[in-house]
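Contributing: when you submit paired examples, paste them exactly as shown. First protein:
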Amino acid sequence: MILNLLLGALAVLSLVLLLWQWFAARRFPLHQRQGGISGTAPAITLFKPLKGCDAATESCLRSWFTQNYSGEIQLLFAVVSNDDPVCEVVRKLIGEFSHCDAKLVIVPNLIGANAKVSKLAELEKRAKHELICISDADVRVPPDFLSEAVAPLRQPEMGLVNCFYRLANPTTLAMRWEAIAINADFWSQVLQSKTLKPLDFALGAVMLTRRKQLNEIGGFAALADCLADDYQLGNRIGRKGHHIALCPLVAECWDPPMTWRAVWKHQLRWARTIRVCQPAPYFFSILSNPTLWPLIWATTVPSRISLCGLALALILRMVAAIDLQQRLTRSFAHVTFAWLAPIKDLLQTAIWLSAFAGNTIEWRGQKFFLRRDGTLTPVNSRAKG
């Protein structure tokens, strides 16, 4: 009887948390334009750290050259080596948009374990303008993105603006699984958390801040060894007393096809990163798994009530996943993969356990040891030390 009540309570709790997450997401004005900048738009510098390229790279980079923004834009691209194939793409676009203030910067010397941050630190020295926009290489945005995203920074208390993003091209079954994690769960969980406290971290696809805020936290050099540089950037700016805003527009992330192994490594790296950044919330996040607990209840204490609870949980989970993905992507192409949502929950349980089973991650083909403070040490360097 006690076991039945305990498992039943955990199952009900997981469904309540799912409904809360769903409700929080439905209230957010996703995709709604706010009117953008009125009057003269402030000048802005864009930082684009790059490595390698694929079929979508040119389209993603082009979207920043074609922004419908009335203010001055400086575009800075950074690579480690002049031999990187992405250099050809960047030079082609710079030549095509010769009227743009754009430059490719070679950054051969890294100042820390995070190569991306080393590039950002170098670009920081070359920025002409007070407003800074940082964006990942695989991100594509609509033409009015900067106009909409810069607007909140007109408020002096606002220290950083970021936005949600969607996996735009889940071309394999493994990526369909990850798409549920990104396009359904992640953004709605962020909004669920926001109902409890103000946002105190940043989402890394696109972030806008001021040079003043960067100087306050020691610039990008202070993040040179951090894995979650986006989280740390937002968290440190937030700890200085500044607010963090979410722009309603959604950026697109275009990834090359990924296998199950690659997606698993990506999810595990993400899980261990969150575990280090927010250990208590991540530990208790297992309680919100809306498939795991009803399944354990129904298989451990089978009864008409527990089996009906499992059936209800599976239906709610799939319907919520369909609705949340449709809201973010504005497409119903994922409906036929709704059955992946409960499977994703069960695989997520294995990832949750694995997150506590080690402190090693693989990132861009290199292995790192993740310290408790969220900083990285290359595994080879650590072994030698």
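Second protein:
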Amino acid sequence: MFNMVTDKYFMSEFAELIASHFDQKLHQLVLDDFRAIFAIREFKKTFKYYRLARSSYGSLKKIDDYKNYWASLSSPLMLSATYLSNDLIEGKVSKSNLIQRFDHLVHECFNNDVIVQSLIESFDCIVDSALHKVLQKTNDVYSSKHDLYIIPSGYGWSGSGAILDYLKEFSNTTLIMGEEKIIEGDVSFKYFCRNIDNNDLVFKHAVKFFFINILGYYVIYDNNYYKPLCDARNRIEKCKNILEYSQLVRKISFSLSRIITYTKLSDRQLYLYSLKQELKNLSKALLDLITVDITSDKIPVLNNIIHTYNLDILEYLDDVKVVCSLRDPRSIYISKSQESVGFKRDPSVFVSSQKEVRNKIKKFINHADYNLKNYSFVSFEDFVLKPNVREDLAKDLGLNLNNHQFANQYFDPSVSIKNVNNFKIYTEYKKEIDFIYENLKEFCINDSCEQS
């Protein structure tokens, strides 16, 4: 076991090593470096190295030796959790056996008695629903701790960070750092929404959801598992109000157990109606979980927990307002080229990815229920250049401009303006920018846009 001094030295040395290997495109060594870091630190402060490993993996994923790379990182406790989850789904193991194994697992994973007891009680109710069809009692509607959650949303260098900085300047808002994956992760809440018509998939995911997104222990089958598992561990480790957290874990588990029971209903219409209502309850409880330390008098601001290309899941969320930032694709290309680790300067690939994202946005707008009022779109360029656009946005979100007490402390228009039409500055990109313009004209802003 490393002490604090040697551990700090180890991480410092590895930080330089993995960055050097990445810069030299020695991708095999990058993955070896990350495996060594993860073996000692697991999810603790390894996310920046994970991003390098993820980029390197993209270059090697088709090679047989690396196809199971992510799973190879998993610890014995993560394997035990997965076996336990699978046995519960199969339904061929007794409740006493499952509970005994889970009790041992959580005592190995956590040293907080409140969390341990909460998890054991939560698992117990999920087991009952999975094995015995026991339906947990509940109120029809879950009442959220906060009346409103604000979610700045982007799709990769689209300017949502500027909106986030502006919202931080209001005295009655509080920012949740990081892009939590519990809502839109491929193995998180979004999976329910996208597979709602498949009872079997919903049942299996309800069990897995508990292990991945609440417990934080499960095999890392691919890189989509990394962030949700990391988020779950960090939430428990950093939570200040552990009693409230444990109560929310129980509520979430009761919700998951009801979802499990609904999947066994023979009445198709009743199943879909019940599940849709329960998903709204679950989403509220999840939002409360990730904002557990924010007092009820503050409005939580959650950075990109729903990206613009996943707006369809808003059908299953209440009490949220999503602000979607749209930006000229030419500027996005320049910003990614300058700032994004592992970004490849290939305008053809970029155009294809932008079309895919923006077509998803158009499809959502065209098919969204007309009563759905929990999203809005804003042009990044207008947001930066026009004060009235920022003020209108604040009003639309229900924010009082009198509470904008820290103006220009985080969002400074005079600084952000350099990211408006930045494609005009980097003349060495001219051919690429011209190609992007020819293929994405409808998404390019008026070049005569001027500051007001």
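If you have annotations for the second protein, write them as plain sentences, like these:
The longest strand covers residues 320-326.
The chain has 18 helices and five strands.
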